[in-house]
Description:
Chain A is mainly alpha-helical. Chain A has one domain: MetI-like fold, CATH 1.10.3720. Chain A has 13 helices and no strands. Chain A is globular. By secondary structure, chain B is an alpha/beta fold. Chain B is elongated and about 85 Å long. Chain B has helices spanning about 20-25, 30-40, 70-75, 100-105, 125-130, 130-135, 140-150, 170-180, 200-215, 225-230, 250-255, 260-265, 275-280, 295-305, 325-330, 355-365, 385-390; strands spanning about 5-15, 40-55, 55-60, 85-90, 90, 110, 185-190, 220-225, 235-240, 245-250, 290, 310, 320-325, 345-350, 370, 375-380. In chain B, strands 6-7-8-3-9-10 form a six-stranded mixed β-sheet, with helices on both faces. Chain B has a four-stranded antiparallel β-sheet with strand order 2-1-4-5, sandwiched between helices. Chain B has a three-stranded mixed β-sheet with strand order 11-12-13. In chain B, helix 7 (about 140-150) crosses helix 8 (about 170-180) and helix 14 (about 295-305) packs antiparallel against helix 15 (about 325-330). Chains A and B meet through helix 9 and helix 10 of A and helix 4, strand 6 and helix 6 of B. The site of adenosine-5'-triphosphate (ATP) has 12 residues of chain B, from strand 2 and helix 3.
Amino acid sequence: MGGFPETLRFQVGIYVAKFVKWLYTDYQSVFDAITHSILWFLIRIEKFLLWLPWWLVLLFVFVVGWKLKNIKVGLVFSLLIFIIGTFGLWDHMMMTLAIVLSSVVISLLLGVPLGILTAYFDKFNTIMRPILDAMQTMPSFVYLIPVLMLFGLGKVPAVFATIIYAIPPVIRLTDLGIRRVPKEMVEAAHAFGSSSWQTLIKVQLPQALPTIMAGINQTTMMALAMVVIASMIGAKGLGMEVLIAINRIDIAKGFEAGVSIVFLAIIIDRLTQGIANRFKYPE
Amino acid sequence: MMTIKVKVENLSKIFGKNPKGVLPKVKQGFSKDEILAETGHTVGVYNVSFEVNEGEIFVIMGLSGSGKSTLIRCLNLLNKPTEGKIFVDGENIVDYDKDKLRIFRQDKVAMVFQHFGLFTHRTVIDNVVYGLEIKGIDTKERYEIAKKTLESVGLCGWEDKYPNELSGGMQQRVGLARALANDPDILLMDEPFSALDPLIKREMQQELLEIQSRLKKTIIFITHDINEAFKLGERVAIMKDGIIEQIGTPEEILATPKNEYIKNFVRDIDRTKVLQAKNVMFMPSALVSLKDGLKVAIREMEHSGISSIFVIDTERKLQGLVTIDDAIKAVKENKKLVNIIKHDYYTTGPETYLQELIPYATESKYPIAVVDDKNKLLGIILRVTVLSNLV
Ligand SMILES: Nc1ncnc2c1ncn2[C@@H]1O[C@H](COP(=O)(O)OP(=O)(O)OP(=O)(O)O)[C@@H](O)[C@H]1O
Ligand SMILES: [Mg+2]
């Protein structure tokens, strides 16, 4: 006698689908505009990355690794990048990087202000929290479908899906960073006659910066984790290579592409973490 | 002529969702606890009135939770009063709009915080510069001012450190410098030395007094330490449960505590650190003038039952002291008053604290003479008076 009564079945999914369809037909121009601006941005980044001479990239990674940690770390980083190059995946790496970079930049542009708003307005925070939870826990395939409908195939929906997946940490950690600024410090700012804007810019954001940087690190890592999934909707890059390898059961190719993603992840993680640590003040 | 710098009239501050609605209940005389239990509102400060004179150190003291912070935070409107008026230089600041308030905070009043409230992401000098930066002073000038101010609080050479690299005492010096750099008329200090250990605390108190003697700011100072209150305060207000119980000079409060609560408070205090010579001296009923001669001196002493007497001239200037034994001997030997005058007593100014008189009182056989700077006799202090205040 188990089971839920059939009569009580309510197919909410249908309405969501209808809603997306309605968005798609009535607001096509809006989504086109968004698509175009993201694409414009993305292509410029991609072109730039692909234009960079390979040795310059190696040198850059080496120097940054050296400055942030030590010379050994710099050497290891450039070696890892070099290996990706030897796999013949240089261009793919750059395409992946372009998607990650654009997603992170857009995530920051949206996420930091949103985080500030949630920190300032408790009501807004109450609304945002479940949304952020949903964004982080919803299997990404689920929103790939509507995103695909609205933005079509290719890089833009990939960026969009990546943003959805990767933006919550920036928002959450910006919010946390600002909330954690000691009350007395904010009061001191006010007591000296600062406006709210001055308090935000001169005290709260700088104080929150180490936390925000940790958020940026997380967001970047999550964006990178998204590339394989994003490749399913046609974004070229390392993820696409993995996908192709899976389809062809090509172990060699799958290994190379997979390892490249891991290398890239390690480098990006250590670099952003190193930068984040730079923003810590003596405690 | 004293100018009133800050005047607080019937100030109340209630915390909660509907403070104005709860105010009538407070006025009906319900206690703080009753109000909290019934309405969920906290009475921070209720119906407080006082005045602070220009250039004065006004101390507000009370136990934890008595509403001191709530009160001082009303004075720069970090707390918006529920009711009441606050006049600064004759203007009611409670009426100020946002812009006027910012200008007021930038120009007239600066605050020093209990836990320093320093910006840990800024270096020491960048902390001190903050107020000037907000005021829009140009970069070069503001760093010059900040450097000078840091020097004046003894922090030369620490400009480029971060606050967390400094000891507590030094951090509060930065807090003080940050407030002073703005050159405010009024300095609000909310338990600035409470977080410091006793030795540093005493040092900072001394330094504050010294700075104050140079700058003559109007200082409103909060503490829960009655010894600190009486040491620094020209006048002291004692708070309890959001109400001011008594306002007065330390001597007034010591001499006439208004109720049991205050009596309990001042019982612990070291009176010798509060009372000055002028508070305990009295004008002796018996004195002799140089021209009076020996006979008069002996008669006066016998009459008053004392064994020594101070000698003054016609302008009341202190000339010395004679003892009864010497006087009787002198009469027999046909000597004059001037021949037997002694000078081995102690004199002191009227502002000297009893504490400093303790050695005099234990060493000397005679009363201590209190004289002004022209050596005019103002009064005398008996040895027992000094010693009895020790307990
Ligand atoms: N923002 C606030 N919201 C609610 N209640 C408050 C708030 N600030 C203070 N209170 C309450 O007001 C009362 C007075 O607090 P206040 O901080 O002024 O005391 P205080 O004399 O400064 O004590 P302390 O010595 O601990 O600093 C306390 O009962 C406190 O709980
Ligand atoms: Mg307090």
